[in-house]
């Protein structure tokens, strides 16, 4: 069975500060991991994905995530927050078949001016 | 447009009524997924279609929920005898293939409100 836990339903950072959104997963098989972003009143958009290649994955809009097997984590980071980064972020884990991607409960990111 | 489209964008219905939600996937995408997003919750997998294979219905919460995909393209999610707990945003996504771990492209969703 697989599961994913996102720590913190709401994170608030100042503009220009580091963004860190936490995701821990549980998987009995090598996982495939994803981060999606959802802007208000829109569908989800893929930010980045880990599929057993490089452990540091770079995505769009300056985001990146590092796969750490020993910590079963896939935290999302961005060095300097932008006002436009305010959105809901979802971590997801998939098995060998992407038909059963399991999504976390989401983290709402707010950016303070 | 080239993206996944869903209709209607908003649907308000009375308890006990049936509703149909429509999804138009990206042309050529063989896999189609339905998810439910309740307030403050993550995405709940409902059903998945892949080509001509039998759909994976393991996520449907009750027998009031059903879905079909005609001609390998458009999909309709039907909820019969709606209940207030069915109120949520219903998201559709499509991808090229499940075996390639391809990106899922999401539609904007249908917000369902059951009064």
Written account of the structure:
The complex is a heterodimer of chains A (113) and B (115). Chain A is mainly β and 113 residues long. Chain A contains no helices and 11 strands. In chain A, the strands form 2 sheets. In chain A, strands 2, 4, 5, 9, 10 and 11 form a 6-stranded mixed β-sheet that branches. Chain A has a 5-stranded antiparallel β-sheet with strand order 1-3-8-7-6, with no helix packed on it. The mean pLDDT of chain A is 90. With 115 residues, chain B is mainly beta. In chain B, the strands form 2 sheets. In chain B, strands 2, 4, 5, 8, 9 and 10 form a 6-stranded mixed β-sheet that branches. A 4-stranded antiparallel β-sheet of chain B has the order 1-3-7-6, with no helix packed on it. The radius of gyration of chain B is 13 Å and the shape is globular. The interface between A and B is medium-sized, with 24 and 26 residues.
Radius of gyration of chain B: 13 Å
General form of chain A: globular
Helix fraction of chain A, binned, reads: under 10%
Number of strands of chain A: 11
The coarse overall form of chain B would be globular
Structural class of chain A: mainly beta
Largest sheet of chain A: 6 strands, mixed
SSE class of chain B: mainly beta
Poorly predicted runs of chain B = none
Strand content of chain A: over 45%
Order of helices and strands of chain B: EEEEEEEEEE
Share of helix among residues of chain B? under 10%
Largest sheet of chain B: 6 strands, mixed
- Give the distance, in angstroms, between the N- and C-terminal Cα atoms of chain A: 41 Å
Unreliable spans of chain A are: none
Average pLDDT score of chain B: 90
Number of strands of chain B: 10
**Total number of helical segments of chain B?**
0
Protein chain pair with the most extensive contact, residues per chain: A-B, 24 and 26 residues
Number of helices of chain A: 0
Q: For the residues shown, what is the average pLDDT of chain A?
A: 90
């Amino acid at each position: 069975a697989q599961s994913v836990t996102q720590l913190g339903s709401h994170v608030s950072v100042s503009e220009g500060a580091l963004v860190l959104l936490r995701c821990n997963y549980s998987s009995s098989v090598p996982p495939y991991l994803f981060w999606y972003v959802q802007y208000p009143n829109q569908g989800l958009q893929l930010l980045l994905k880990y599929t057993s290649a490089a452990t540091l994955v770079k995505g769009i809009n300056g985001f990146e995530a590092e796969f750490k097997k020993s910590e079963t984590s896939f935290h999302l980071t961005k060095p300097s927050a932008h006002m436009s980064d305010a959105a809901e972020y979802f971590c997801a884990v998939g098995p060998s078949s992407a038909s059963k991607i399991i999504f976390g409960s989401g983290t709402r990111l707010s950016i303070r001016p | 447009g080239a993206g996944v489209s869903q209709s209607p964008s908003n649907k308000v219905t009375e308890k006990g009524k049936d509703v149909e939600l429509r999804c138009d996937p990206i042309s050529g995408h063989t896999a189609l997924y339905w998810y439910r997003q309740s307030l403050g919750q993550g995405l709940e997998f409902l059903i998945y279609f892949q080509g001509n294979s039998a759909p994976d219905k393991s996520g449907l919460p009750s027998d009031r929920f059903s879905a079909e995909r005609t001609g390998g393209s458009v999909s309709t999610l039907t909820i019969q005898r709606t209940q207030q707990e069915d109120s949520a945003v219903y998201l559709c996504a499509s991808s090229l293939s499940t075996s390639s771990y391809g990106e899922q492209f999401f539609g904007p969703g249908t917000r369902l409100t059951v009064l």
